[in-house]
């Protein structure tokens, strides 16, 4: 078929271009839900392009199959999200730590962890050693110390060990439970593997770590300012 400027921008061609643009856009989505939604839009436009403008039954058939496949996958995502159930502690983790995740992915992440309790004096991370567990505190208070000197604390809604785990370096501080605590713990190897995959769950964890680090710096600076020390800068 001879291609001209007019044919390249004809109504039919514009429909085809729009379909391919949506298809490319779907491939750069980080959330599977939006990937499926945009892919469905691309499939519909391509089916129209092949069927109405090119009169190509083969192309129309396969674009229809592509669209229906994504509709089915979208229905599965909706079903999994609808059937995901959370306890009060699990909901606290979901809403505070990873609110950007689909409910089904949050359910999957929680299932990979272990709910644990810790008595006062329990050391969650030790300065100079790799944090074995990433802990999300649901209740209780934890003291943060460096060289034996308290520099801050954290409580419900905070991660402990995220800097050591995400940086693959030894912990820069010791975290000691001050009051009875309950937390959701994730093995170091699991977290590292999840982060390395750069999937939706890993992206959500990275975002949570950045938010948590900012909050910790603010609390530490406030405590050190009260004590007359120099503030910490990121």
Give an overview in words:
It contains nine helices and eight strands. A hairpin with a 2-residue loop joins strand 4 and strand 5. The chain has two domains: 79 residues; 140 residues, Sandwich (Jelly Rolls), CATH 2.60.120. It starts with a helix and ends in a 7-residue tail after the last helix. It is α+β, with helices and mostly antiparallel strands and 234 residues long. The protein has a four-stranded antiparallel sheet. Helix 2 runs antiparallel to helix 3 and helix 8 packs across helix 9. The radius of gyration is 25 Å and the shape is elongated.
Q: Percent helix among the residues? A: 55-70%
- Tally of individual helices: 9
Look at the structure and name the CATH superfamily of the largest domain.
Answer: Jelly Rolls
Q: Write down the CATH class of the largest domain.
A: Mainly Beta
- Structural class, by secondary structure, is alpha+beta
* Fold-level CATH name of the largest domain: Jelly Rolls
Give the total of beta strands: 8
CATH architecture of the largest domain: Sandwich
The strands making up the biggest β-sheet line up spatially as 1-8-3-6
Chain-averaged pLDDT: 88
Cα-atom Rg, whole angstroms?
Answer: 25 Å
What's the short version?
With 234 residues, the chain is of the alpha+beta class. The protein is 57% helix and 17% strand.
What structural keywords apply?
4-stranded antiparallel beta sheet; Jelly Rolls; single chain; 9 helices; about 230 residues; alpha+beta; 2 domains; disordered C terminus; elongated
